[in-house]
Amino acid sequence: MAEIVQQRIENRIPELEQLERVGLFSKKEVKSLLKRATALEYKLHRLIITKVDFIAYIQRIGYQFKREEIEFSIISRINNIFRRATTKWKDDVQLWLSHIAFCKKWGELSKVFSSMLAIHPEKPALWIMAAKSELEDRNSSESARHLFLRALRFHPESKKVYQEYFRMELLHTEKLRKQQKKLEQAEMDVGGYEFSPEIMTGKLAEVVYRDASGKIQGADFILSLLTIAAIFDFTKDLQDTIIQDLQSKHTDDSLTWDFMAKRELGATVGEELQSAKGRASDMARREERCYQVYEEGLNSLSTEAMWACYVSFCLERFKRKTNVQQLKEKRQERLLAVLQRAHDSSLLKEDFYKNWLQVLLSSGDSEQTAAVAMAATQRYRQSVDVWCLALQTMVRLGSGATGKLFQDALTHVNPKSSLPLWQLQVEWSMTSQSPEATEALFQRGLLSAVPAVSMEIKEKYLDWSFGAGGYKKARKTFTSLHENRPFSKAFFTRMIQMEKDQETPKMSNLRDFYERALREFGSTDDDLWLEYIREELGPSGQPENCGKIHWRAMKLLEGESVERFTAQYTVLQTGHI
């Protein structure tokens, strides 16, 4: 090992002497560099080496130097160390990317990409990165094309590879078109060279599209290629080809109909109108054409996804601001009609009921709003979100059937998911029901077998008791529940805070509350022990109790909570907290 290290160090001496001669380093700095390099070389030749050692050596050599200040031999050495590291840790993609980042400044980029792809051909993103580098850094569309074709051998159905290959061919065509335009403007004689009309009109990209659409099905993928093509101003024919394929091969996909309908919004018909009313009338006609396309789509594809596209479009148009009342009313009328039809077909998605109810509430139609709320619960009987939405709506309407509806909701919803319903019912009861009815509700909630519900009910019950009957009632509620597990920490800390908020808080009560809390959480909650100690250090406490509390905490706490408690207790003793 020593001989190898010595040889490597001796190989560095000539270049360091040269750097000393040109004044980049002093003699003392050269000696320091040799000493550090020797130590790092020995690290790289130990039986057990780490990536950190390699990275430290690379940084020490001079990864941060400016190009004009670094010798070719130093660049070669850094590349050599990167190669040694990636040979040992072939699977570490981040290490490969670090080498690539270095090579983007100092060369050998293609070789590193080639080596990395030989090890990681299964990662499409790396093929795309390599191809983009060839196009952008080396200005070689031919090499980029070659890499994309190789990538497709490994990933013949990769949407992302095809999308980026398609984009690359369009970028290449755009570049050639710009070159041709500059040459024509300069009236330069280029001999017998001619730009290929096929290439200049994007035919290579069309070849990629044909291949991609033959292997990967789905309107979403075809539309992604159309979106890319639309970026370039020379792709009208290509876009027309893609749209024709959509209309002929993908009419069984709601996305096709959604795209075709929305195209009508951008269709130019006649001259641009100047008045607000005229523009609103024109927009109404455009939207009507969109509705017609959606209706045509529903005739051949009446699915939940198709209705979702139609409803989403109507909702988006309804939410658009307009000062023309007639257009606003037309949009609302269309939205409500489409929502009703989708619901009648049992194909309205759960999410849209919220929008439907919001529109109805804003219109002031209480009867229809209540009917839709109830219909939603019939359609999605086990959905907590739908029940909450319906209940909130009925509460807002002041319906007398709200109480029964809460009972129905808890009957149909999985108890493990019922917490939001309990929370909503408690809030409703506290604000609109009698104290006796609210107390009865809390008693029912306490019987829940779901821990989250039981703990939440205890907290709410304690808060309500304090608000309804003050400290005495809250203390009575706390006492009645203190053995009714499970508990949350908040149940105890709220009672502690209620005691501390009294005009003359009793330390004996606080000790009792802390002791009860520690019986539940003493093995894990180091903060609770510290709060107890701070209380004893306070004006009403007995500081001599702190030692005993500390001893108990150290005995009961487990794991990392012991370390946290020890650190915080030490700081507490120094008076910093």
From TrEMBL:
Q: Which UniProt keywords apply?
A: Nucleus, Repeat, rRNA processing
Q: Which domain of life is it from?
A: Eukaryota
Gene Ontology biological-process entries = maturation of SSU-rRNA from tricistronic rRNA transcript (SSU-rRNA, 5.8S rRNA, LSU-rRNA)
Where's the U3 small nucleolar RNA-associated protein 6 N-terminal domain? 9-59
- Which molecular function terms from Gene Ontology are attached? snoRNA binding
Q: Principal localization?
A: nucleus
Q: Does the keyword Nucleus apply?
A: yes
Q: Which residues form the U3 small nucleolar RNA-associated protein 6 homolog C-terminal domain?
A: 288-557
- Subcellular location as annotated: Nucleus, Nucleolus
This protein is called: UTP6 small subunit processome component
Please tell me the species this chain comes from. Salmo trutta (Brown trout)
